[in-house]
């Protein structure tokens, strides 16, 4: 399939590379061209503009930082350049409101739109083992499936309306952040009480909470690995902000999400740059008067 | 081994029955005698008083509702009647402060003391598949091991000081309550946004959060099974209160635990009697204006 | 002075009437024309459109519900029709972001812009006893002063940049909502403990908290006057949302504001329509299991 | 009247001095004798023990740090030594539970008991301008009135049951702490937005919030006077803990009080010793990334 990947950060690079490996014809574009050029050796064509990247594709996948970056890409050639009939697969974690709006804008140009945010950190992107959460018209998702198969080991379908995938993605991220905060409070109490933290975490993750989120973040917290960022604190704050925006739109109070927002904001001011989401636990420990 | 079980509620009954099955000589006592008598057919001796239950045992296991009930049992014969050299295994979810105090009181009488709270709902107790979290002198835990083996499929050792097992148990319960609250907020948002909740929960529990707590409570929340109680809302509130007491003693702020406390208290006033901890999600949905 | 008042709700009507009384030539416009017509007997001219209202004025004062209503008025004739050199006085409680943007838009058309939100309920507007909080170029505020003198008994100047008045107004509203919530929690505890609430409130408002907010809302709470709305619950929620938006823009965590947001949202779902902000105390009492 | 004052800290010293000035015969006792001896020059008798202080009094007023200190005084001679018919006036800020218990203990010895906590900082105690909040049998309060008149300019009666005064006092302190936290969040946002803080505070305290608490703490916050303590951060945390205990006993959720507890605990770990309650605003500013 002729595919463009717009946004070649840590995530986009892995995605583009796996699309090349799977035999697709891949054009790549990035705001700072250097990152895109590294993919030439994988067989990707480095486009000179977004319009150049998308002018003849069947599918354009965007993986950019936030709403602003996606709006810039749309205005900077994506809306105008994407052929009628082609699909825009939006994999960035963006606001529910923007995603809902995009459905209309693409439809008015005869373009298809699928929201397909992903779960997984850069290593999962590199390994082609992301989890894709797709929503939109079933026919368009079907056509995009070969792309999802190249980058992910699971594709879940969240509904007919693209923004439902964005809600689901944001809810998932909220549960991750909530887990990190609760683990952080727990480990602060355990440490203050002289518990063997490693044994305690083992108990939790071998029994009640045996999923990967508790294991990955629990280990990082117990080992005090707060930097460099896998899932950066700033991104986590952005996502909690999007959750609260979506909740506000739906008139749903989310008191724990509110606590997470305030904690993440404090942590961002107090933690070194490039801190991981796990630094919420560092803040919890410092607020408890524990030594670093 | 000659064993007494003090407190024959849903949990204690399963424990006593499995001890009988494993060939131990079991005396049982309960404040309201009827519940204890049901165990006679399993081979347990129904004691006429706490002193009668414990006077010749090697180990007395207590499984009662709260601090007050345990203090009543201690004053009502346990402290006086337990032979020197015998072990008091305290499996109730009690305060860290009481557990710390008991270590001293038993020691002064030449009795051993092991805190061994358990994870697992009544069905796990009935099946002998609890998880035991033991702390105290290693020698005493070793002697109690055959009892743990009869009631549990895992025994974790939390440390040398009995109250460390209580801290660990409370932290585990805090994480359970926190998970339920976060799932409740999430499902309220998902429902308001028209997501297929069952598919969404499947995504979460097949990938990021594949442990049993998310599965059990997530399913209950999506299916709106809020009653009858497995882990009752009132007990959950009690446990969060104990977590906050322990945190206060250790000078550890736990902002999410504070939110849970306030939510559980509101839910207790608003929910029918015999509501499960899962009713936190019912409160979240009602606060979001969703129909029952 | 030739003045237009755009938005003739409870607040705008009092403002327009006092401007007529003070001898200004007043044109009025309202989306639903009926409310505007009631002012003809006070000497106001009922304009047929926004452009008609503002085409020859020296000052146009807007007092509308929210950002959306103000943007509609701007697009619906205000921006285009306001003469160069005339002043737009924006008295609505709007977002900091919109106010900052308006400064630029008016400047590019040679119009002046002053943000001048007010404190005071409709009875204060009717009595010409509002408090005006003005920010913007000093020269423009000076020119607007006769208008402020007709509607208010105090004018405070918050700074050179219009949006500083909006921040100050939102902060004031936040403190009001925070006071109501804290009083609500307090009265719930006092009532549960059998205190004489009226005596208790008297103690507070005669000593520590003798300002008008504690007196007005404290009395409403103790007397359970939750409806009809003076300062409506929905507006309070809107304002707390604007506070949180402003705080987010400035990267300031406001944990109490977050609690207020979630409480107001829950109260909105649970309270009858037309409930006052004081209904936060009704929610607090219900969450405490107290009878209505 | 023959009076004993037990507990000669900053508050107790002012109280004892004003009782001497008013012509009462005053015996004083303090755990560290030095502080008591300073009152000899005011005419007080420095007692050698609590029993010595109270053996012939009509009224013994206690003003100590907390529940533990009061229980120590009771066990250390006050209960045994206070003559039958004499009154114990408890002016410390203690728990509702202890106050309720004391009513019974004193009654069983034929002693009267009045809870009479006070509002006012040490300068108000020195000036005899405290506010007394008394509860208990009306007859006993009547007899104690001359003592209250010597130390306070207002006496409020909260009810027949002594602990009602303690609830009222704790509620008052909760509202003070809540005010400081809200002001702290507000000033952080105002400062980030470039408002003139002094003008902004003036606006608030001349209009909406003209009572003394907003003025005193608002000024301290704007001027960054966080040390030394008038009302110490540690005492504020203790009081919020007592509020939450009382609320728990009454099953009243107090979500803002929970936030205050967690903020005060964090501030205590992060602020220098001898910080005032106003340091909650210092924490808010630091959490917002503002320079000290």
Description:
The structure is a homotetramer of 292-residue chains. In chain A, 56% of the residues lie in helices and 14% in strands. With 292 residues, chain A is of the alpha/beta class. In chain A, helix 8 (162-192) crosses helix 12, helix 8 (162-192) runs parallel beside helix 13 (279-287) and helix 9 packs antiparallel against helix 10. The longest helix of chain A has 31 residues, at 162-192. The radius of gyration of chain A is 20 Å and the shape is elongated. The interface between A and C is medium-sized, with 16 and 16 residues.
In short:
The first copy, chain A, has 292 residues and is an alpha/beta fold. Chain A contains 13 helices and nine strands. Chain A has helices at 10-21, 33-37, 50-54, 67-81, 96-108, 122-126, 138-151, 162-192, 197-206, 212-222, 233-250, 255-270, 279-287, and strands spanning 2-6, 25-29, 45-46, 59-62, 87-90, 112-115, 118-119, 130-135, 152-159.
Strand and helix layout:
Four copies of one chain form a homotetramer.
Chain A: E1 2-6, H1 10-21, E2 25-29, H2 33-37, E3 45-46, H3 50-54, E4 59-62, H4 67-81, E5 87-90, H5 96-108, E6 112-115, E7 118-119, H6 122-126, E8 130-135, H7 138-151, E9 152-159, H8 162-192, H9 197-206, H10 212-222, H11 233-250, H12 255-270, H13 279-287
Helix pairs in contact in A: 5-8, 8-10, 8-11, 8-12, 8-13, 9-10, 11-12, 12-13
Number of beta-strand segments of chain A = 9
Mean pLDDT of chain A: 96
The chain pair with the largest interface is: A-B, 66 and 66 residues
Distance between the termini of chain A: 51 Å
Helix content of chain A: 55-70%
Low-confidence stretches of chain A: none
The major sheet of chain A is characterized as: 6 strands, parallel
């Amino acid at each position: 399939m002729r595919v463009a990947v717009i946004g070649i950060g840590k995530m986009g690079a892995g995605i583009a590379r796996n699309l090349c490996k799977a035999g697709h014809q891949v054009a790549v574009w990035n705001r700072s061209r250097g990152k895109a050029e590294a993919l030439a050796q994988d067989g990707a064509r480095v486009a000179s503009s977004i319009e150049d990247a998308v002018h003849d594709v069947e599918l354009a996948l965007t993986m950019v930082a936030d709403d602003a970056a996606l709006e810039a890409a749309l205005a900077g050639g994506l809306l105008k350049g994407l052929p009628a009939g082609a699909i825009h697969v939006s994999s960035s974690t963006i606001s529910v409101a923007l995603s809902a709006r995009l459905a209309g804008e693409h439809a008015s140009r005869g373009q298809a739109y699928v929201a397909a945010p992903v779960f997984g950190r850069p290593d999962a992107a590199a390994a082609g083992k992301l989890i894709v959460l797709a929503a939109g018209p079933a026919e368009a998702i079907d056509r995009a499936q070969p792309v999802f198969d190249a980058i992910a080991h699971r594709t879940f379908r969240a509904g007919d309306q693209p923004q439902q995938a964005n809600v689901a993605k944001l809810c998932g991220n909220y549960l991750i952040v909530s887990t990190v905060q609760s683990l952080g409070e727990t480990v602060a109490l355990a440490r203050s009480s002289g518990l063997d933290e490693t044994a305690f975490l083992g108990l939790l993750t071998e029994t009640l909470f045996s999923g990967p989120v508790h294991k990955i973040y629990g280990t990082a917290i117990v080992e005090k690995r707060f930097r460099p960022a896998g899932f950066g604190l700033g991104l986590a704050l952005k996502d909690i902000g999007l959750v609260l925006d979506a909740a506000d739109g739906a008139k749903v109070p989310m008191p724990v999400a509110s606590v997470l927002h305030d904690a993440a904001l404090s942590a961002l001011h107090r933690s070194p740059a490039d801190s991981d989401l796990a630094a919420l636990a560092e803040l919890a420990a410092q607020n408890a008067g524990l030594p670093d």
